[in-house]
Amino acid sequence: MSASTQNPAEQLQQATLALDAVQKALDYSLADLKERSQKADGKISAALLDQHQLVSYDLALSCAEVTGARFAIDYAKRAQQASGGPANELTLEERFALLFTAEALQGVRNRLSARPADFGLNEQWLNATVDYPAARQFCLTQLAAERVAELGQLMRAQDGVTGAYLLDGHHEMMRETFRSVAEEVVMPLAEEIHRHDLDIPDAILDQVKELGCFGISIPERFGGIQSDEQEDNLGMIVVTEELTRGSLGAAGSLITRPEILSKALL
What is the pLDDT of residue 3? Predict the structure, then answer.
């Protein structure tokens, strides 16, 4: 069944099944790496693990991409439910999830098939997991240039919207506030800052300071704005993303580093 005849739910299910197949190969490779890195007492030897740096890196990256794809699919489902739109048409979020999943699957396939023996795999394992026909067809369909172009055109038609935020009221207010700062304060200054390699001006520093930046990750009991009851990593992410909209160097990374330092110290 081609993607053109599948409804969105069926395409997302196909993506999930392909991820499940690839995960089997990764799990087997991780077990193989663990066995090769164990000492006689069963504990992992850093020295032995260090002998398999490339395999370790590739497996870590592959597992991260597969996990990210699963979250993308879950996000797309929640966005569709929240929109209340027709279930028989692919949403922007579903298109992004399918493309991201296909790119993740293709990336994992490229790594494992390039040196299967190093991952403890053989041709039979590859054929049953990263190369099984349904997974290959899914990638071929979703990664087609026409498919990617359609997604780009859809984004243009929606004025650059990249998907629903699905934020609660508190974080949505933060997003709107810092988007205004990015557009009204940061953007007008960004070009000059980058072109002439200037220091970040007080106009930006004072504005973000007044809104509580440099204290987003610090609990209220220490003078910050984070609730004493729980951490709010999402708040830091929302603020960083919106300020980065104006300029990564002049605003986005400006608050990220002190917030990370604050979390580390606490």
Answer: 59
